């Protein structure tokens, strides 16, 4: 009987096992390994894993219970838990409470005399400022987080090394640069963020994967084959797991578009298929399917496009009515894909997408990055063109064209220019599109750009 009870009793896993799982980006496994642990360090680590999984409310609840129950906490332990509590509050959009929690944490953090904890606190507070739109305050906080802190003899060990915090600060500065329209600086900061985490001898696989995803997006926008090859090579060496599927999805999708710009359509479709297989949600599956719809249409594979669009539309009917950022992205792309064939349905889906975008705006990239807002303009312009509202379509495509040019997204600007030229908005748009086609002669839009009519001699 005792042997049977022993078999039924859950095996206690060591705290070191939980730490190793956290470092490997296996956050669900980390939480499972902490099931039999109740120390302040275990509570903090579990909260970190929940926050990384996007389960902010659960993290907040666990921290609230622990802060009330654990009376004899060191300054380090209480400061770390209060900092994490403030972080969870900020990501839930409860900014006034988050500010109070950061204020409560500050005294404990400084009293802990731990440079690693202090740097992470300053970064976390700066990120909270970013969410509130306080960019100057965010940059000031980043500068303090990057300032070399004096080493303290006998300070408590901290789970987040200085190099990890520095990498996060560079990523945050990249987001600020994008919000200010300085996309050259954003590229520099994102590359610095990846280098910092890549060279650190203490792993954080999830954050490294996120930085690879950022580099993949840069490769997509630039169309630089060397950048794309670098990302593909480094991604192939990552030991992926289920908790990292979102970043792998982003990487495959971005590399698919980079391939398509280089004229490697087989490679692009292979990447889009891989993105679909890695899609962590229905919304992501819809996005991956619509990528294939877009490319198939441009390559005049209309039967394939129709089949994929029908599938994406069926998926949208099963999508949970949640407030995830990706849901609004999926609906926006679906509206754009439906419009040319079914303008009324395209408009209906667009209205739904924009309504949802307002709900998630604080968390969505469109709250900080003008490029995300420009994608909304293109979707609405496409619907207006399909509805026959040429005046409105030209106005929206013109705005998108100028924004893409200002963002140094030349191939996206060329796509808007093609639409404008076809709508009769002016020869200058056709000239811009042709020039971009010469730069990317193998791209899917090159032939369409070359065959644009010249209004001047029509």
Topology:
Layout: H1 2-8, H2 15-23, H3 27-33, H4 40-52, H5 56-69, H6 75-91, H7 95-111, H8 115-131, H9 135-146, H10 162-179, H11 183-199, H12 205-222, H13 225-236, H14 245-261, H15 265-278, H16 282-298, H17 302-318, H18 325-338, H19 343-360, H20 370-387, H21 390-406, H22 410-422, H23 427-439, H24 446-450
Helix pairs in contact: 2-3, 3-4, 4-5, 4-6, 5-6, 6-7, 6-8, 7-8, 8-9, 8-10, 9-10, 10-11, 11-12, 12-13, 12-14, 13-14, 14-15, 15-16, 16-17, 16-18, 17-18, 18-19, 18-20, 19-20, 20-21, 21-22, 22-23
Structural overview:
By secondary structure, this protein is an all-alpha fold. Among the domains are: 13-113, Tetratricopeptide repeat domain (Serine Threonine Protein Phosphatase 5, Tetratricopeptide repeat), CATH 1.25.40; 399-458, no CATH class. Helices cover 74% and strands 0% of the residues.
Tertiary shape: elongated
- Helical amount: over 70%
Q: What is the tally of beta strands? A: 0
Low-confidence stretches: 1-6
Mean pLDDT: 91
Write out the CATH superfamily name of the domain at 13-113.
Tetratricopeptide repeat domain
Summarize the structure.
This protein is mostly helical and 458 residues long.
Structure keywords:
458 residues; mainly alpha; Serine Threonine Protein Phosphatase 5, Tetratricopeptide repeat; 24 helices; disordered N terminus
